[in-house]
Specification:
Length: 314
């Protein structure tokens, strides 16, 4: 068997996926939930799906293989075209018989023309090394989902179930654990359809700006408390990333040492006990400031005459 789906991730660890791999995984049905709260399938489911895709070589983009959650249980499904392709790639597929239907289990016809639904359908698959075709029978009571599609094209849907049963019987190594959509319709509607309806009827947003409120908080513990207040339908990867970044900032601020307060010298005044030096300004001839009188000499003494330069006093 040849052919591989190279675009799918090679590991179930979503932290190692590229953006294109994440998009392909979501397209394959492994991501559920409303747009505001998308959730990846459990890792065992992801690993099993990737293994099925690698060993069958089917393409999820062509809807040859995909994953669906029904009633809380995940399952990998293939289209009837995908199952035919798997059988062909084995090199041992030799075709199949025409689909036949019956209303009583006795008379089988190649074309169903009656207005009522058939009671059963059968198909035989030819495989290399087998003398007779491997037949499989699907009954209406076992597989009908009573959905609009089954009511409109019941004979076609039942014929696909019979063909899938026969293909799996002829090639168990390649198709074990894989079921077609038509086979699984009776198990209930896929959860994705119910989630679309739930998303349409989602509650109105609270109107609160969670990012702005987070920036006003002072600790990571308060931020965790705020996260618990956010309704589930308003949570999302983007909001979670923004609040986580704010929590990291708060943790860094709490761990950083507090700076020493700047000394306010002006508020302290002059230091007590300090002697401030007073500069003496040298002066020349004495000057009398305006408004001051010259001090008279003491009685009995004459004031010395000012010396004049250039003459001999003798």
């Amino acid at each position: 068997m040849t052919g591989t789906v190279v675009a799918l991730p090679t590991t179930g660890d979503s932290s190692e996926w590229t953006a294109s791999e994440k998009a392909l995984v979501e397209a394959a049905g492994l991501v559920t939930g409303p747009p505001a709260n998308r959730q990846l399938a459990p890792r065992p489911v992801v690993e099993a799906f990737l293994l099925h895709a690698r060993r069958t070589g089917l393409d999820p983009i062509a809807r040859q293989i995909y994953c669906i959650e029904r009633g809380g249980k995940w399952g990998t499904q293939v289209s009837i075209d995908g199952a035919r392709l798997v059988a062909e790639r084995t090199g041992q597929y030799r075709g199949q018989t025409a689909t036949q239907w019956t209303a009583d289990g006795v008379t089988w016809v190649d074309v169903w023309l009656a207005s009522e639904q058939p009671k059963a359908a059968r198909v035989g698959v030819h495989r290399e090394g087998f003398v007779e075709p491997l037949y499989a029978v699907a009954t209406w009571d076992a597989y009908s989902a009573n959905s609009p599609m089954w009511k409109k094209m019941g004979a076609l849907m039942l014929g696909k179930c019979a063909e899938m049963l026969a293909l799996r019987k002829a090639f168990p190594q390649d198709l074990s654990g894989l079921y077609s959509t038509e086979e699984m319709d009776q198990a209930g509607a896929p959860r994705q359809a119910a989630q679309v309806q739930a998303a349409v009827a989602a509650p109105e947003p609270s109107g609160r700006d969670w990012r702005a409120e987070a920036r006003e908080l002072g600790s990571a513990a308060e931020l965790n408390g705020l996260w618990q207040q956010i309704p589930p339908h308003e949570r999302g990867d983007e909001l979670f990333a923004d609040l986580k970044a704010i929590a990291v900032q708060l943790s860094q601020q709490a761990a950083a040492p507090s700076p020493e307060p700047e000394k306010q010298w002006a508020a302290q005044g002059e230091p007590k006990g300090a002697d401030w030096a007073v500069a003496l300004i040298p002066q020349g001839e004495a000057e009398v400031l305006p408004g001051e009188e010259e001090t008279p000499p003491l009685e009995g003494m004459e004031a010395p005459e000012p010396e004049t330069g250039g003459g001999d006093r003798g």
